[in-house]
Amino acid sequence: MTAGGRHPSAVGRKPAPLLRIANLSLRIGSKRVLDDVSLDMAPGEILALTGESGSGKSMTALSVMGLLPGAATATGTVALNGEDLLPLPDRAMNARRGCDIGMVFQEPMTALNPFHRIGDQVAETLRIHRAMPRGQARAQAALTLARTGLDPAQVSPARYPHELSGGQRQRVVIAMAIAMRPRLLIADEPTTALDVTTQAQILDLLTGLVRDDGMGMLLITHDLAVVAQHADRIAVMKDGAIVEMGATGQVLAQRSHPYTQALFDASSYRPALAPRAPGAPLLVARDVVRSYAGARKGLRRAPAIRAVDGVSLTIASGERVGLVGESGCGKSTLTRAILGLEPLQGGSITIGGQPVGTPATRRQMQAVFQDPYGSFNPRHRVGRLVSEPCHLTGLPPGDPIGPALTEVGLSPEDARRHIHAFSGGQRQRIAIARALIIRPELVIFDEAVSALDVRVRARILDLIALLTDRHGLTSLFISHDLSVVRGVTDRVLVMKSGKIVEQGPTGAVFDAPQHPYTRMLLDAAPRLPGGA
Amino acid sequence: MKTLALGAVLSALMVAAALLSFAWTPGDVTTVDIPARLQPPSAQHWLGTDHLGRDMLSMIMTGARTSLAVALVAVGIGMGVGVPLGLAAAARHAGPLDEVIMRMNDLVFAFPSLVIAILITAILGPGAINAILAIGIFNIPVFARLTRGAALPLWRRDFILAARTAGKSAPRISAEHILPNVTNLLIVQGTIQFSLGILAEAGLSYVGLGAQPPMPSWGRMLADAQTMVALAPHVAIIPGAAIVLTVLGLNLLGDGLRDRLDPRLERGAA
Amino acid sequence: MAAYLFRRLVIVALSLAAASVAIFVIIEIAPGDPASFMLGMNARPDTVAALRAELGLDLPPVQRYLAWVGGMLRGDLGLSYTYRAPVAQMVAERAQVSLPLTLYALALAVLIALPAGIVAATHRGRAADLSVVAGTQLGIAVPNFWFAMLLVLLFALKLRWFGAGGFPGWSDPGMAIKALTLPAVALALPQAAILARVLRSSLIDILSEDFIRTARAKGLSRRQTLWRHGLRAALIPVLTILGLQFSFLLAGAIIIEQVFFLPGLGRLIFQAITQRDLIVVESVTMLLVFSVIVVNLLTDIAYVAADPRLRSR
Predict the structure, then answer these.
(1) Potential cystine with A315: which of A140, A154, A283, C83 (Cβ 3.0-4.6 Å)?
(2) Do C145 and B203 touch (CB under 8 A)?
């Protein structure tokens, strides 16, 4: 699909707006969250609202739904088909929510009631608005579920949410939102929690439903590549205000506002990599098997689950290797196994010829983890946190903490502060300082930039490239995000269902994938025009 | 905030009364003065006198000593044994040690606590020490469960992974990373168990199985008062009020501390 | 579910076995020989020995333990040393007071706690919530036997609406229920306070869940969301607490029976202890432990049955 020109509203006579937001401002307590937001949406149009976390995208959506938190006060106009929704009492809004406006949420794992069957949850939308008899609503719900790709013959409406995958649950949420064929659909980061292949299917489903029913869709996403492929128009938000708005192709091609330009650059950012000549093999894994006992089924156990199923890999000294795969493919288990934190049911992992798991081998590798908020003991000061790996080596003479912090762009004084005083990006810098303080041979970056906003992510990627170069580090970069892995590695491994299905030089694998799974991953990944 | 302050003041008041009673009480709790029995509160006896003519205020102050001491030691037993067990069970999650510790916990939990307390004190003889034991044993599974429950999610956090990559052993991680992060919970639960201990001690003493004469105790004062309720309501009302205020103070203190120390709230504010 | 039940039943059986051993050992090490106690200080040694043989006290402990457990499995709780009556029969008589009292109190507690918890959670921070919170704080802090004394003072001695104690038997059910009302109220108050607190906080947690927001986005009103999506989830922790509180309810009943001179199981156990009627102590304690374990088993099963995520395991 290409952006723009897909809908009659883009050319010719302008129809009356479906949604008109005018001068919307919002305060929560004393905090100003939205500042004079104005936008128009035509019927059947897909408008993307994009920006970094905290920019006010979701609050704009909740203002339209009338589901703002209690302490919020909104001023301005939010008009649906010419009717201002803001002054409406809750009772009147109940009749519009789910009927005229449907909403899809980010987190499919928690958006459904775990106690009710999925068919009943979809039927509830119909019963609330139409007082349809139960049987009829159930039948209609089954049809709606089928429209979202959940064929009742395969996925029974009598199932409970926990029996479904994330993608299937999101289809249920979508079915609930479109059951009444609303004129406006709001999708708040509908695919952020999903894997890349599922993301592509859900986005295609949403755009298909929008076109079929002639709904307008307000698509909220932080991902410019998703915007580029699916939106007719785009509004870029920053600090509670819209900084730029226009047809998607035009905005992304011209990037007239500096913030749009910065987001665009950061989205496809690749740090400069100095060429490296790999040395002798450093980390060698042979036929590694890690399996878990299966769940109890009746009085027997289900067969064991092989999280890592016969993986062999070699990382040479000085190499920058990537490992990509979707959630549940076993890459996290493999990471912990390499760190010597998982017992193996088969095979061996050695670093410098020694089996991993001993203090001597731990000294040779360190890791940077994904969650900047969970990676640090909140009770300890930064100095103690950063120097924790010195447990393996003894504290080196002099003060290692100050230089370690300076090296990652913080100041030595930060050692005395607690971790909650730092932002997500700063925390990942501290995590890098902690990993490098004992100068390991191998550093494992486990989804180390996945939780960060794009501009912060770009700067952390720069820092990683700089420091691995400066200290001649070998690195293993694990991510679900193909574009990130492409930017920082020389060689890449693709993992699926506990096995490595393809490996090779990064450029070659990305440009000419051999395995069908790699091809599917690459096809599914949304792409920016002119970007990665 | 108000909760915390009110709870702290009430609790401090009771502790102060107990401590002061070592040095000074308005009257003598061992002197029997039958002619002056069952007097209502007056300038001479602020809280009146009991059925033996003893000064009620002095009895309440000395009784506070018994209540607080029994409950405090019982909480100490519960924490001292329960917390290490909980930490060990979490560190060896789903292993045989975890299984054994949790099953033993379930077993103690299955006993109706006061029934067993009655049994122990009845068999070993009534007295403050046996009351402490009886209450303390039932605090062990409470703290073991709480500690294990709070420690398990911590073990899945990345900072524990980082500590393990730094080569630290499970006991060391438990002491250095897990324990400090469950301390708040333990303090809050500690105040709750403290107040439950005071109620339990009062109950045991009321049925004659707790502290024995001449050691004054709020529960026994109530037992003595039972037949006098109609004659002199104050002998029944005052010791009960002392229990209520102490327990209320400790519970408010616990609630206030929880609001203050809850790491979830801390993060929400950040 | 079947496998879960099987596992739970195995654990219940093991717990009961362990509990019976523990109780037997405690009684065994207890000082005081029932036979000499029954015959008084001046009894002749051969009379005492004869009584010991008659009571089976001269047999080795293992044999006595097995006889005791075997009897219980057949519903035979032994013969009381003092009354020479079957313990099962004495328990059955006393249970006619204790069981209705406990259930009465439980019903009162739930009837008070449910509306209080719901009103508090849905009016968070407002006057109704604050008064429920204050009420629960007070309810938890009040010792039930003292509250019972205050009730007697007010309703029996001053107002004379109820008797101050005793139990007329079930020949006139109206009078029996009246006699149990003050004890049940005293017993129910702390329980209601705890339940209301748990319901309030669990409802507050549930109402901030994502699926509640989803329900609102479908067009359900606040009230519909509460009834259709909030309450069921919020009642699950309440159920657990209800099970856990059962043993406190039993213990409370034992003390409350003292206040109101009710001829229930609590009185039976106290009399038996003072008279060294150890077989009664043993069997009644075992019975109480058994009922606590069974109630906890039932709440666990209900817990699993109420949650489809657990049910399919």
Answers:
(1) A283
(2) yes
